[in-house]
Design brief:
Helices cover 66% and strands 3% of the residues. A two-stranded antiparallel sheet has the order 1-2. The chain has helices at 24-31, 36-62, 79-83, 92-103, 112-129, 137-154, 171-196, 202-216, 220-230, 243-269, 272-280, 285-300, 302-315, 327-334, 344-378, and strands spanning 3-6, 9-12, 169-170, 325-326. The longest helix is centred in the last third of the chain and has 35 residues, at 344-378.
């Protein structure tokens, strides 16, 4: 055992834990094989994992069909996939339908435009996640990028063909609904959370309470249905709002109600001394809220905020009920062709990977942001 000298006295040091010694064998022996029961469970689970991994590799790679020939009439000859059914995957369906899955019914010769829009969305997310861009200029970056996306999707200018919203679909629709929905829902949620905690404006507080409880009391499907079917009935004659915009409004209102409760939890978690100190400095209500209260409250609720973001990113698939072709809907329609109806598993696996990629990126970023903010606070 190691020792150290402290003020002339020899003090034995506590032995270093096995996990910190750098040997995976020591860690495995301490955590996986430390008793006969633990050893048995480890071996059984290891066997099941290996069997599953081998089965996935054989089905998804070794015995898979990656492409199929095309008949004289232009249809795919899926006989090779039918012969491999149950033995190997048919990834040829992805090769044949990936453009429809990604871009929906957007004109084939113009699909370079939504492809650029997807790249712009991803670049916008990356830039927004970098803290060195957290300045006022970021708002102009958002405005310019979203304007460029709108120009590319609609067209009608710069020699581009005009494409109505009814022809949009696939991944761009999912990104548009989730990005615009959360971007507009977040400031609304902040105002609702502040209004619900207001003590000076009881009427505003009551309106915020009714709004939150009413929206949270109904499913998103019902809001989308109301926005699609009932909302146009209240509009003046001759005025019609596009169904994509109606769905966007429903998603914004629904997301804002949930985000407002998450933000309110962060506001309630702050000690009253923070607000009292700001009042002592002579700050106004909005200065105190923007500079002291909100930054600390939002830092406390980063995990539930991101969890809500992830949930609503996936909930955009519910726009299927009002006839909007988002990513999931485009995947379902892609396998409606008789030749590919037997290979839905491969389509859903690819769709799951796309959703997982975006959701995991949000989760990974939130953990890093939370760690950085905690480190900066502890200095």
């Amino acid at each position: 055992m190691s020792t150290t000298t402290l003020r002339g006295a020899t003090v034995p040091l506590k032995p270093q834990p096995a996990t910190a010694m750098g040997s995976p064998w020591i860690w495995a022996r301490a955590n996986l094989f430390n008793s006969w029961l633990s050893t048995a469970i480890t071996l059984v689970l290891g066997y099941l994992v290996v069997r599953f991994a081998v089965g996935v590799i054989e089905w998804g790679f070794l015995n898979a069909v990656w492409s199929v020939p095309t008949r004289a009439d232009g249809t795919a000859d899926t006989s090779a996939c039918l012969n491999a059914k149950g033995i190997g995957a048919c990834w040829a369906v992805i090769h044949d339908k990936y453009r429809f899955i990604l871009f929906g019914r957007y004109p084939y010769e113009e699909q370079w435009r939504p492809a650029i829009c997807i790249a712009l969305f991803i670049a916008l997310f990356i830039v927004s996640g970098m803290r060195r861009f957290w300045r006022r200029e970021l708002a102009w970056i958002w405005l310019g990028t979203l304007t460029a996306i709108g120009v590319l999707m609609w067209g009608g200018v710069l020699g581009m063909q005009f494409v109505p919203q009814d022809s949009w679909g696939g991944l761009p629709i999912t990104l548009i609904l989730s990005t615009f929905g959360l971007a507009f829902a977040f400031p609304l949620a902040v105002l609702v959370a502040l209004g619900r905690r207001s003590t000076q404006l009881p009427a505003v507080k009551m309106i915020c309470v009714v709004y939150v409880e009413l929206i949270r009391g109904v499913p998103l499907v019902s809001l989308l249905f109301m926005a699609s079917v009932m909302f146009p009935l209240f509009l003046p004659e001759g005025i019609n709002i596009d169904k994509l915009l109606r769905a966007q409004i429903a998603i914004i209102l629904f997301a804002a109600a949930y985000l407002a409760e998450v933000i309110r939890a962060g506001l309630q978690a702050l000690p009253k001394g923070q607000g009292e100190a700001a009042d002592a400095l002579g700050l106004s209500y909005w200065q105190k809220t923007a500079r002291i209260i909100l930054p600390q409250a939002l830092r406390l609720v980063i995990p539930p905020l991101v969890n809500t973001f992830i949930g609503f990113f996936k909930d955009t698939s519910l726009v299927l009920i009002i006839g909007i072709f988002d990513l999931l809907t485009a995947g379902k329609v892609a396998i409606s062709e008789p030749a590919w109806q037997s290979f839905a598993t491969e389509i859903y696996i690819v769709l799951a990977l796309v959703y997982f990629t975006f959701c995991f990126a949000m989760s990974k970023y939130s953990r890093g942001l939370e760690r950085d903010l905690d480190r900066a606070r502890s200095r």
